[in-house]
Amino acid sequence: MRTDEGIPMRRLIPIIVLAVLLTGCKVKVDQGFELNADGSGTASIVFGFDDEIMEMLSSFSPDDDPLSDMTSELPSGWESADWSEGEFTGIEATTDFADLAELQSVASMVFSTEDGLFKTFSVEETSNGGFRFEASMNAETLEAGLEGNEGFDFGGSLEDLGDTFFDAEIVIKLPGEVTDHNADQARSDGTLIWKVGIADGDRVIHAESTPGGG
After folding, report:
1. 198 — phi, psi (to 5°)?
2. Are 103 and 43 in contact (CB under 8 A)?
3. In this predicted model, what pLDDT tens digit does every residue of 54-106 receive, in sequence order?
4. Which of 41, 112, 161, 205 has the greatest CB tally within 10 Å of its CB?
């Protein structure tokens, strides 16, 4: 297990983009956390690929699991499990945190590293005992990943890829009643979902909850 770096998203970008451009397949990347009232909880990351990409990745190395590099390079303390949803198959990596300080540590290592989806990330307890989450998206992650890999020439723009090929979401669940948010979707159980576009720029997402409620 590697303890000094986050999940190697940037190194996977050229492989994913090439597969997408050649086959018209789709990739799913979800990141988020579920928070308990005492500040503990679970952080998670999902990497999913549709059947066409899985077949193509397998054809490159028939004897290898196409997801093995992801699982072998998870930071210490993270566990992975097979994951599937609809057309996607992949892995879900999870880690538990004991309090908000530990969540911030997880975020700084994985969510908001140089390669992460977040440029800034914070979860704080409010004066009334609720919680506030705020993060700004890292617009440079994909672009830098494409430009920073020697021998890989994308030859296009991020807008060319579009939401047709990528299904990326930020998924969080705060304890209590959610009183303010700018999520794209709010489930009945309080789970909030932000749809992430690959050319979103420095978008800021937020949510706030109060004690009680569901």
Report:
1. -75, -10
2. yes
3. 777 667 665 666 666 667 767 778 999 989 888 888 889 999 999 999 999 98
4. 41
Work out the burial of residue 136: count CB atoms within 10 Å of its CB; fewer than 13 is exposed, 13-18 middle, 19 or more buried: middle
Residue keyed to tokens 């999902």: 46
**Percent of the residues in the chain that have a pLDDT greater than 70, as a whole number:** 62
- How far apart are alpha carbons 190 and 204 in whole angstroms? 20
| pLDDT at residue 3, as a whole number | 36
The structure's pTM equals 0.77
- The answer to whether residues 163 and 197 touch, using CB atoms and an 8 Å cutoff, is yes
CB 154 within 8 A of CB 19: no
Q: How far is 92 from 25, CA to CA, in rounded Å? A: 20
Secondary structure string (H, E, C) spanning the chain: CECCCCCCHHHHHHHHHHHHHHHCCCEEEEEEEEECCCCCEEEEEEEEEEHHHHHHHHHHCCCCCCCHHHHHCCECCCEEEEEEECCEEEEEEEEEECCHHHHHHHHHHHHCCCCCCEEEEEEEECCCCCEEEEEEECCHHHHHHHHCCCCCCCCCCHHHHHHHHEEEEEEEECCCEEEEECCCEECCCCEEEEEECCCCCCCEEEEEEECCCC
What tokens appear for 203 in the block? 């978008």
Beta carbons within 8 Å of 151's beta carbon, 6+ residues apart: none
Q: What is the mean predicted confidence (pLDDT) over 168-186?
A: 95
